[in-house]
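Entry 14. Structure prediction run on the chain below.
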Amino acid sequence: MAETKKSSKFFTPGWIQVVVAFVVAIVTQGFGIYHFGMLKVPMTEALGAQPAEVALGFSIYALAAGFASLVVGDVINKIKLRGSMLCSAVLFSGGFLILGLMTEIWQVYVAYVVMGVGSALGGMVILSGIPNNWFNKRRGIATAIIWSAMFPGSLVVGQIIPAATASGNWQMAPFALAGIAFVVLIVGAFLLKWQPQEVGLLPDGMTEE
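Output returned:
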């Protein structure tokens, strides 16, 4: 019978996964949630639309992300975590690019559908699954670390968007967020592992002999 041997070290490979997931969460959760409040006014003025029309875009984003999250598990089973993250990189950053280029209100809605699906493919399910799969004893700490990324995400957004708006070219903000998101999610796609068994480990740094 195989014998399970526990690692005595606190810093196991699972914490590397937590750090990578933390950075991914800055993008898919921090950028995704906090950007709209700062972009709403410049988008409304650029389109000459009603605030409620523009605000509908973020509601669409939330719905798209929520419904898409229901199938993320199946997506991971079919194209693996890396495939899901690569799709997230294209769609999430693509949504920001559409926002920067939009000239009609319907394009805002398209942008948020695309961005919402991208957020789901690299967001909540994966960010919750990583600590759940890699940890047993320290799962709560790992989960809390990952989800605390929303705060630095808001700080990044809070620096980029006001600076672009003050310069008179607010479109540069979604372009910058798109570039950062694309790089982070691409790197995350190659560093994140869905389960420790993929690298010959068990949860909590345990090994099987």
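Residues 1-7 have pLDDT under 50 and may be disordered.
Filed with the rest of this week's runs.
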